[in-house]
Amino acid sequence: MIYLKTREEIELMRESALMVSRTLGLIAAQIKPGVIPAELDKLAEEFIRDNGGIPAFKGYKGGRGVPDFPATLCISVNEAVVHGIPGKKALNSGDIISVDCGVKKNGFFGDHAYTFAVGEVKPEILKLIEVTKESLLIGISQMVAGNRIGDISFAIQQHAEKHGFGVVRELVGHGLGRTMHEEPEVPNYGKRGDGPKIKEGLVLAIEPMINLGTKNIKHLNDGWTIITADGKPSAHFEHDVAVVDGKPEILSTYAYIEEALALKQ
Asked: What's the per-residue H, E or C state across the chain?
């Protein structure tokens, strides 16, 4: 069942989303060669708890023999697409990392992500990051009352594949609200006019996962980390978006990240 939100609920969800945004801004300021992902994770958890939130990913149920997720952040490095567990191996110049964060506050979830370049990164990988971010914004532009989920999916796929990149099929965006994963699923590929109709009050986490090479993926033995099948890098961006007055309104923001990155230049 798809749960449409009231204006009041959307404002509570905005608070949750913005806590994620501030957390990602804090992390952005720390990303550089030599940094340990596990230390970034500790910093994020402390910030979220100190500001009245609950880390949404930590303890997330794995199921079928998979351990619960052990961290506050998903930090996915290079060929890791999503769900990377923050480790103790330092980041190197030339790496890219997707940092995905979830927060529960006021009974509602926020969940979004950003892909960062670490030090000097190859031009073709920077292009992958740029196109993935563009794909997110192009997808969001289709989240208009009266359209269908497939319109979002088609727009993302078309833009990414136009640049020769692989669009992951098995992983999708999702509805968001009092639980972190609600209906409907939001694939990053599809046909115009397919899927559930977009209505006032719908809230989605839209999240293109785009690969430099093949669209195919593999699962690591930790039960969580998903990597590209060819070992080439992957990028991931995510925003929380609500339909307000028939149009998409982004509840999360990259402003804190962009401010932190600008200060580092």
From this structure: CCCCCCHHHHHHHHHHHHHHHHHHHHHHCCCCCCCCHHHHHHHHHHHHHHCCCEECCCCCCCECCECCCCCCEEEEECCEEECCCCCCCCCCCCCEEEEEEEEEECCEEEEEEEEEECCCCCHHHHHHHHHHHHHHHHHHHCCCCCCEHHHHHHHHHHHHHHCCCEECCCCCEEECCCCCCEEEEECCCCCCCCCCECCCCCEEEECCEEECCCCCEEECCCCCCEEECCCCCEEECEEEEEEECCEEEECCCCHHHHHHHHHHC
